[in-house]
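We modelled the chain as a single entity of 369 amino acids. Its sequence is:
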Amino acid sequence: MIVNRWAGSLGIVFALAWLAGCGGGSSSSGGGSGSAGRNAYVSVPEANAISAFRVDPASGNFKNILGSPFSGGTSPIAIAIHPSGKFVYTANQGGNDISVFSVDSNTGELVEAMPRTAAGLNPSALAIDSGGDLLFVANQTSNSISVYSISSSDGKLAEIQGSPFATGARPVALALSPSGKFLYAGSANLAAVFGYSVASGTGTLSAVPGSPFAVGGGPFSMTVDPSEHFLFLVNFTVNTVTGMTINASNGALALASGSPFVAATGPISVTFHPAGQFLYVTNIGSNNVSAFSVDSTTGATTQLTGSPFSAGTGPLYATVDPGGKFLYVDNQSSKDITRFQIDPTAGTLSNSVTATTINLAPSQIVFSK
């Protein structure tokens, strides 16, 4: 599965300016024990903290986890959760390091393990393989990808031999294929995607044939479909989305049918529905979300009826809950999270509500299974 395509509150504000020339929730508070549901964790860079919630899978309602927000590293811009749900990781841009938190299985509370793990300069994106064995980190200023093995017992990180691996200038996005065979990094400066094969067992990165691949300007977010047939990425500076087919044998990329296609203003993040037939693009410039169906054979897209759908102010990042029922959007300017209900057949969005309000700008949200 894809974990943590790039978002980022503080980092993206600076990036957008260059390209263009904490609190708890509003829902009722309380601990997570004794109530069915899953946990959600939101990185809040300006608070150096993680906000934590218990989420009802039927209603999508948020409830504060006792003790939230939890202090962490400096400017946690990106967040990832281990497939087991036992550990949470943040990329701390201000500290050039990675935080590891253990998750209380009963309450959902977080406890950070110290010391933090050193990364490259300005780490901005994270990805974890589906087996929970490897963590990948894009280092935006040092133009590299750090790779770590993950301890199954305590979640601690150990950098693998050969890491960090050089990549394109200013990598701001990562997308890992569901099988874990291929890793893609978006280079904001070069308007290109760098593709790597991931060595089984070791995590060593090797360039795929034809890499890097030219795309539109500002590839700030990428995602791979659940069937591992397509990579989609936003082109912020030209208001388009590029779809690319993935060669199953070697990971090479080629333009999908009808690509690139138009989004709204300032497309900044992109995510797939877990079933793979719907694609959602967050548009920070027009305060909305574009929704598309995706042809499973060609990758051609069709905009859904009613799209784009209005979100909060400054929508920065979006993700679908693991059950596929709701789309959640982090809004940087209105400092809240919008929840949409997803039509399971049509993929359209409705019943927009504010799931929770954060006192400072949220950057990314992740869910436990």
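As a brief sanity check on the tokenised model: Helices lie at 10-20. The longest strand covers residues 110-118.
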